[in-house]
Each structure stands twice: as structure tokens, then as C-alpha cells.
Specification:
By secondary structure, this protein is an alpha+beta fold. Strands 3-4-5-6-8-7 form a six-stranded antiparallel sheet. Strands 1-2 form a two-stranded antiparallel ribbon. A hairpin with a 4-residue loop joins strand 5 and strand 6. The longest helix has 15 residues. The chain is globular.
Amino acid sequence: MCVGKWVVPARFEGSSNPLTGTPAELRLNAVSSNEIDDYLAKLDEPKRSTLQQLRETILALVPEAEQGIYYTMPAFWLNGKAIAGFAAFKNHLSYLPHSGSVIPALRDEVGEYRTSKGALQFPIDVPLPTVLVERLLTTRIAQEWSDL
């Protein structure tokens, strides 16, 4: 199966029946993009527009991604695996790769940002560069399916 720029092995393809499938597939069928709309609607500017731009960037890079809320924060899945997310906080925004190995792998590229193993913090009024979001996503996707 081809997913955007990535080829995902058949064993990771999801069920098309919403009443059957893995727990991850069932969870994805229970969430919707409307939940992210609701999350963003509750934010003040410029947080709302900055995160909306990040959302659009993620979906442009991985149009097959499903979106919804995961641990109370917007998230994106590819074949049942969380590959990205974001959140708004009082004084910053965070990009969440849903893996503790992505940000350390990109240490040089994320050096100007405050980071932890599982989050990259960025200003509320400065969107993440598309090139960086693409690197974060491709690294996460490659790590998820590298053991095949």
C-alpha cells in the first residue's frame, strides 16, 4: 500500500469495516476532525491560527492521515499508529511526534527550539517551518516501519 511518499506493508493496512478491526482501528473510527476543530475554536489568537497552519501542513504532507483527539490533544494517525500531534499551552505551543526517538534523532535540526524526548516547543505566533515538519514526520514514519 502506498501512503503519500511512503510504502506501508500490507500487514499494516487497516480494516474498512468500522465494526471490526484492531482496537486502534476502532478508536480511529470513533474520532473525527471535528474534535480538532472544537479544540482550535477554544484557543485565542494567535495560538489558533498557528496550530491551524500546523494542522494543514501535516495533512498536506500526509493526506492519508486520520485526525482526532488523543490524550486530550489533536493527533494524526497513519494505519493505526500515532505519527504527530500538537498542543497549546499558556506560553508556548508543542509539536508531539508520539515517539521518544524522533526529536533526539533530529537534534541538529531542532537545536533552536526547546525540546524534550517527546515534545518540541515553539512560539505561539511563529509556525514551524514546513521543512522541519516534513523531517519530523518522515523520521517518525521511517522509525515506525523500519523494522519490517
